[in-house]
Amino acid sequence: MRAKLIAVGERMPAWVAQGFAEYAKRLSRELPLELVEIKPGARGKGRDDARAMEQEGAALLAALPRDAQVIVLDGHGAAWSSEQLAKQLSDWRMAGRDLAFLIGGPDGHAREVLQRADQKWSLGRLTLPHMLVRLVVAEQLYRAVTILNGHPYHRGYQATPSLPRSPPRGASCASSSGVTNAARSSTS
Fold this sequence. Notes:
Mean pLDDT: 86
């Protein structure tokens, strides 16, 4: 199984490119990940943003691998935990199809792209720069692989147990016998 991250936008900042390359390298054996960049549609004064979005959508669909499982990054999609993504990845492996993760342009995805989606994935309610989404997706795919392999990279969320609070220095505390530390020290 192979994965493609097909994204509208070009010229990632160097730090995003380096981060993406690092995770793609880490994934190379388990889930080869390739980035395909789509030229954004023309926007600006006197331009039709809807037309730009349609052009981007057509280019995204044209870049899809044949018979791929299509996962669209969309704010209205399912918000998976890392463990849930690992379960999804396990299910996708069992299906035996290549994966295509689609990141739209500044106005989102064209209707045709959303209709083609096998699944929609939301990274949460935050608005993230689309270039950063590439890095987050690559890292989360790597994390999902490590979860499935039992690798210690993912330690999971562990709530810190509530610890009893220590009294400030010099403050008196009542013991179970009702005698305070201050009273005890004055009688010793």
